[in-house]
Design brief:
There is one protein chain. By secondary structure, the protein is α+β, with helices and mostly antiparallel strands. Helix content is 36%, strand content 22%.
Length: 461
């Protein structure tokens, strides 16, 4: 029941996000904006490998292309890959040279088989050392202590986690704690974790820590001479049979109900991949599945700089048909398009979409790339002109210019502003009532669950 409630809430939130988002936010993205384009069902798309993990997702960072998925929208327990989000929040919001003290709760409010045994109440450690302990050794006590340090409590930190996850595009997830130990209300999807890790590896501090094979922790009360920690992810350990020279960073996870989970960031030549595998029966399967997916991504696709594929002269001619006195058209130099190796790049078509120009003649827009009738990229374009407005005339062949105000269409087009506002208010009230109803059901379910647990304990003892 809880899982169903979570799905309904996530769906309602996602619908609100989609309704509120500007159109270009739904376009294909790239390395920094974490917006994906999914064209795996397109004719001619290379077949992916068979894997053992129940769910997986493979994303190319530079183009934003989802290259492979298996049950990527299924809500599953993440286990310790949760700590990726915990660490990202800390490096974004805290001074890593500060010192924190492990509280009684941070040590004892962890189930016995989830304790690392490396820290005790009263131990002091820098935030930086605590992050290494968190990401390399997967210390649950470190996760708890960092949450208390930043937000005062685990519950308050979980709220921060959920807010940040939404910002990263992980709209089908809910986090209840900073470590990933089992909680029915703590779940995510392979695609959501790919988006979270996408954001994390672009933080230089996070990446430095998460790519370190071994690290020495400074002395503490428990360890007067300090102690060393080694990365649990064997794909980063050169002496391991699972070592992969393409892998730059990663994080493992395991609890019984989640089984084995793994997030991986890998680089080969100019291509960067994020791979997530979830619910593998054995850790070895996580590594084997990840290696198969990384090889699939690196060996079957080619990246092309979007600016190099654009015909600047044709773009300027197309813009001249719509604007007065076009001086230059610039395609974003950091954008990429991705195609299967055997797909000729000259089969890609483009369409220019311009916004209304500003008073000084500057104009922005998007250059949309299409292959096999599927949009594969939407790249920012800037136009400098002497002035003028976007006209309704046709541009050159293979280009089109869209005004932001189009006539016709839909029952909303004839509404007055106050009518639209009233409609929006009614919709929000209805959604709020639905959420409250679901919340009430969830609370009742939790109460019944706790009563059952108490009965089981009494019967057991």
């Amino acid at each position: 029941m809880k899982r169903q409630i979570g799905r309904i809430c996530s769906f309602l939130f996602a619908m609100l996000v989609l309704l509120a988002a500007p159109a270009d936010a739904l376009a294909a993205g790239g390395k920094t904006d974490r917006v994906t384009v999914d064209y795996r069902e397109t004719e001619g798309w290379p077949a992916g490998p068979e894997i053992s993990s129940e769910a997986a997702c493979l994303i190319d960072l530079k183009s934003g292309a989802i290259l492979y998925e298996k049950n990527a929208s299924e809500m599953l327990y993440p286990a310790s890959i949760t700590k990726v989000l915990t660490a990202l929040l800390i490096v974004e919001n805290c001074d890593l040279d500060d010192t924190l003290t492990f509280s009684q709760n941070s040590v004892e409010d962890i189930e016995a088989d989830g304790r690392s045994g490396l820290v005790a109440e009263g131990d002091q450690m820098t935030v930086r050392d605590c992050l290494y302990l968190l990401l390399l050794k997967s210390s649950n006590e470190a996760a708890y202590a960092l949450a208390e340090y930043m937000s005062g409590s685990v519950d308050a930190f979980a709220e921060e986690m959920n807010q940040r996850a939404q910002e990263l595009g992980a709209v089908n997830s809910h986090f209840a704690n900073p470590h990933g130990l089992f909680d029915e209300n703590h779940y995510t999807t392979a695609e959501d974790m790919a988006r979270i890790y996408w954001g994390a590896v672009q933080n230089a501090t996070f990446l430095e820590i998460d790519s370190t094979p071994r690290y020495s922790i400074a002395p503490t009360n428990t360890w007067p001479d300090g102690f060393g920690v080694e990365m649990l992810d064997q794909m980063l350990i050169s002496s391991s049979e699972y070592y992969n020279e393409d892998v730059v960073a990663g994080k493992t996870g395991y609890i019984q109900k989640a089984q084995n989970t793994l997030v991986t960031y890998a680089v080969r030549a100019d291509q960067e991949l994020i791979c997530v595998t979830m619910k593998a029966e054995a850790r070895s399967q996580s590594y084997e599945d990840t290696e198969a997916l990384l090889n699939y991504g690196f060996e079957n696709f080619t990246l092309y700089p979007a600016a190099e594929q654009a015909d600047t002269a044709a773009l300027e001619a197309a813009a001249e048909n719509e604007l007065e006195g076009v001086e230059s058209v610039t395609v974003d130099a950091d954008s990429w398009i991705l195609l299967p190796n055997d797909a000729p790049v000259d089969q890609v078509s483009t369409a220019l979409q311009l916004d209304e120009p500003s008073e000084d003649g500057a104009c922005t827009g998007q250059l949309v790339y299409t292959w096999q009738n599927q949009q594969i990229a939407s790249v920012p374009v800037s136009v400098q002109a002497n002035g003028g407005t976007v006209s309704e005339s046709e541009g050159l062949e293979n280009f089109r210019v869209q005004s932001q105000t189009e006539e016709g269409g839909g029952f909303l087009s004839g509404m007055e502003a106050w009518q639209l506002a009233l409609l929006a208010a009614v919709v929000l009230v209805i959604l709020a009532l639905i959420v409250l109803f679901i919340l009430r059901l969830w609370i009742q379910h939790q109460r019944r669950k706790r009563r059952r647990e108490r009965r089981r304990k009494r019967e057991r003892y």
